[in-house]
């Protein structure tokens, strides 16, 4: 089954960060086509003025509504939160798509690749994993830095069965 991935990028995200992302995602996920749409303006309605952060679920709903077919991934520059957490790297919805903030990723394309892979793993049905695996939950930048950038054997197997 052909699976299309639409990557939306906000204009403040440097091209340097996303340059090699599509090739990596084609290799790792059962995705047959990737379209990248740059200069996507984020809706001001998702901005929380007092927290000075975007509501990640609001952005995910925006990205999903912006998408006509397949899976969507929104990459944006500002910090994000969900209720109950100080910040999130991103959020995902199974079968729909995900959003990832570059704000805490230290301008590192490898770090972004890792977080995008993690969130897309959720989109393809993977849960958090305890093994050395990109699906390990991380609560801090330090933890996220430490986690593996690859799927463990169990998650790889599950991913192949996802479609
Ligand atoms: Zn996760
Ligand atoms: Zn795993």
Topology of helices and strands:
Blueprint (H helix, E strand, L loop, with lengths): L3 E6 L5 H4 L2 H8 L4 E5 L9 E2 L4 E3 H10 L5 E6 L3 E2 L8 E4 L3 E5 L7 H15 L17 H6 L6 H8 L3
Parallel strand pairs: 1-2, 1-5, 4-6, 5-8
Antiparallel strand pairs: 3-4, 7-8
In words, what does this structure look like?
By secondary structure, the protein is α/β, with parallel strands linked by helices. The protein has one domain (4-160): Collagenase (Catalytic Domain) (3-Layer(aba) Sandwich). Helices cover 31% and strands 20% of the residues. The chain contains six helices and eight strands, in the order E-H-H-E-E-E-H-E-E-E-E-H-H-H. The protein has helices at residues 15-18, 21-28, 56-65, 109-123, 141-146, 153-160; strands at 4-9, 33-37, 47-48, 53-55, 71-76, 80-81, 90-93, 97-101. Strands 2-1-5-8-7 form a five-stranded mixed beta sheet, sandwiched between helices. A three-stranded mixed beta sheet has the order 3-4-6. Strand 7 and strand 8 form a beta hairpin. It starts with a strand and ends with a helix. Bound molecules: zinc ion (2 copies).
Uncertain residue segments:
none
Overall residue-averaged pLDDT value = 94
- % residues in beta strands: 15-25%
The secondary structure category is alpha/beta
Ligand list: zinc ion
The CATH class assignment is: Alpha Beta
Query: How is the CATH topology named?
Result: Collagenase (Catalytic Domain)
Strands of the biggest beta sheet: in what spatial order?
2-1-5-8-7
Radius of gyration: 15 Å
- Give the CATH architecture: 3-Layer(aba) Sandwich
Number of strands: 8
